[in-house]
Design brief:
With 97 residues, the protein is mostly helical. The model has no long low-confidence stretch (mean pLDDT 88).
Length: 97
């Protein structure tokens, strides 16, 4: 059960990371999307969904590595999610200081 939960949350976090890229595109470019699409991109990619899920995935993966258990996700997925987490932390600290 824990393996399925971890895999599910990792995949959802990856999807939210893609929405985070969409948020950056909306912030720095002028892209005309319908309001519903823009709202979905902002909710899934900005605070609190994407960074929170990345933090949960990073902590869960770290605990699994400490216990020397294999993660159920593909090897690239925790690495990409961790890179996005650090990118988001740096970005939000730079914006909100």
């Amino acid at each position: 059960m824990v393996n399925k939960w971890h895999l599910f949350v990792s995949r959802i976090a990856f999807i939210c990371n893609i929405f985070f890229i969409g948020c950056l595109l909306l912030r720095y470019t002028h892209v005309a999307f319908p309001e519903t699409v823009t709202g979905l991109i902002l909710i899934m990619g900005w605070i609190p969904v994407s960074p929170l899920l990345n933090l949960i995935c990073f902590a869960a993966t770290g605990f699994r590595w400490i216990k020397l258990k294999k993660t159920p996700a593909p090897a690239w997925l925790p690495i990409i999610n961790a890179l996005f987490l650090f990118t988001q932390l740096i970005y939000f600290l730079a914006i909100y200081q």
